[in-house]
């Protein structure tokens, strides 16, 4: 095991040194050409999607999205709020005949205002920078301006995120009595590998897969209330899993947590170091706040942990993230 993969080798006082070494070790800059906009989603090709489609046997569909409403987990940190849904036309207007339409027809219209990352979502490649650089070695200021992400906007992913999905229910594997990892638990590459072995061959992870990691954090929030779900302590991936993510050549990864990686982070003073390594350097697309509970139950009942996963973002021009309603089809 290399020092970068060994949690016991982390110096909690020096995140800069660790991040710099890991970023260099797992960097994919130039791998798909200097003009690349989609990073590790290049691992998904037509044959990958065809093979994924062949996994559908009984047609059961599971939405992996949380709701988008004012009862969500956001508290306003960095201006992230829950969605505000407003009706522009209603049935009341139609009954009163004040909409101005002929022959008795009426209708309803509505509008929603929300941060793009307030509920189930993808982080785009323009979401995180490493020491002033964005994905593929571009200067951050040349990529994202007040006009949006001019290079790696989320719209470039609109036809990419269809592939074989694999669920690793690490919460149930490590804590079978509750199915929920405790806050602050850092999932290691050894945990991921052991979970794969325990779940069996259908949970093997390889090139082009979209990996889903369930911690049980959302289950606890449902039972106890949102609390500090958005931004607070949570189980999540250890920063030392970056090498595992790189070696497996996965296309994307998503979790049932707000932050994807363990919180608090594994250094005395740090903020989302795994994001800093894998998004701008590896080119990895990350999903957060996915609802994996019902899917986990279905996979366990069938003893099958692979499925067709379709999860395209909204093609919002220049956005650095997007809401998503992921669908797993078994």
What topology, given as strand order, has the largest sheet? 1-15-13-7-9-11-12-4-14
List unreliable stretches of 5+ residues: none
Taken in chain order, the helices and strands follow as: HHEEHEEHEEEHEHEHEHEHEHEEE
Number of alpha- plus pi-helical segments: 10
- Radius of gyration, whole Å: 21 Å
CATH architecture of the largest domain: 3-Layer(bba) Sandwich
Q: What structural category do the secondary elements indicate?
A: alpha/beta
**CATH hierarchy, class of the largest domain:** Alpha Beta
Termini, distance in Å? 36 Å
Helix content: 10-25%
CATH topology of the largest domain: Glucose Oxidase, domain 1
Give me the CATH superfamily of the largest domain.
Putative cyclase
How many beta-strand runs?
15
Portion of residues in beta strands equals: 15-25%
Mean pLDDT: 97
Number of domains: 2
Silhouette: globular
Please describe the biggest sheet, giving its number of strands, its sense, and whether it closes into a barrel.
9 strands, mixed
């Amino acid at each position: 095991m290399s020092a970068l993969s060994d949690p016991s080798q982390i110096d909690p006082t020096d995140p800069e040194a660790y991040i710099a070494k890991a970023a260099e070790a797992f960097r994919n800059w130039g791998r798909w050409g200097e003009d690349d906009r989609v990073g590790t989603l290049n691992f998904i090709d037509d044959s990958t999607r065809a093979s994924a489609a062949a996994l559908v046997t009984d047609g059961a569909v599971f939405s992996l999205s949380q709701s988008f409403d004012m009862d969500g987990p956001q508290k306003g940190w960095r201006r992230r709020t829950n969605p505000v849904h407003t009706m522009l036309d209603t049935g009341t207007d139609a009954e009163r005949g004040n909409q101005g339409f002929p022959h008795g027809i009426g209708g309803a219209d509505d509008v929603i205002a929300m941060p793009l990352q307030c509920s189930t979502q993808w982080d785009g490649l323009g979401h995180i920078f490493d020491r002033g650089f964005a994905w593929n070695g571009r200067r951050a200021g040349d990529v994202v301006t007040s006009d949006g992400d001019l290079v790696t906007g989320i719209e470039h992913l609109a036809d990419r995120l269809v592939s074989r999905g694999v669920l690793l229910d690490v919460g149930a594997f490590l804590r079978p009595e509750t199915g929920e990892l405790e806050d602050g638990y850092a999932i290691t590459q050894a945990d991921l590998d052991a979970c794969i072995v325990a779940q069996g061959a259908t949970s093997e992870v390889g090139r082009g897969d979209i990996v889903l990691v369930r911690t049980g954090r959302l289950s606890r929030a449902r039972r106890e209330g949102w609390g500090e779900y958005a931004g607070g302590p949570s189980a999540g991936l250890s920063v030392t899993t970056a090498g595992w993510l790189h070696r497996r050549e996965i296309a994307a990864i998503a979790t049932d947590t707000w932050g994807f990686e363990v919180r608090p982070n594994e250094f005395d003073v740090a903020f989302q170091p795994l994001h800093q390594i894998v998004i701008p350097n590896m080119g990895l697309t990350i999903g957060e706040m996915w609802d994996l509970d019902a899917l986990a139950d279905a996979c366990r009942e069938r003893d099958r942990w692979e499925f067709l996963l379709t999860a395209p973002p909204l093609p919002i021009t220049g956005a650095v993230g997007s809401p998503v309603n992921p669908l797993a089809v078994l």
